[in-house]
Amino acid sequence: MTCQHLKEAGEPEPRAPYEGGCPECVADGHRDWVHLRLCLECGYVACCDSSPRRHMSRHHASEDHPVMRSYEPGETWRWCFVDEMLG
Q1: CA–CA distance, 61 with 70 (Å, rounded to integer)
Q2: How many Cβ atoms sit within 10 Å of the Cβ of residue 85?
Q3: pLDDT score for 2
């Protein structure tokens, strides 16, 4: 099975540097995110589902942007929320 969302995903400029952590967590005074993710629709940077607040999943739910990728150094895998596929 193939996923058109993964095929068509871009590589936007991240809206926040990796070193800054999860912008929403930081803004709320939290420093307990686990990993960072990058939205491949708009460049939004947020924490992963292993983090307490799951900001990237919340971003997908509110914006309906289908694909994100790991924003961790050395990782390039992608995830499609719509088709629940790793790419």
Answers
A1: 18
A2: 15
A3: 86
47-56 — which CB contacts under 8 Å span 24+ positions? 47/22, 51/22, 51/25, 53/22, 53/24, 53/25, 55/22, 55/24, 55/25
Residue type, 57: S
How many Cα atoms within 13 Å fall on the side-chain side of residue 85? 12
Return the pLDDT at 58.
98
* 14 DSSP assignment: P
What would the mean pLDDT of 26-35 be, rounded to a whole number?
98
Question: Is 1 a residue whose pLDDT tops 90?
Answer: no
How far, CA to CA in Å, does 79 sit from each of 26, 29, 31?
Answer: 24, 28, 24
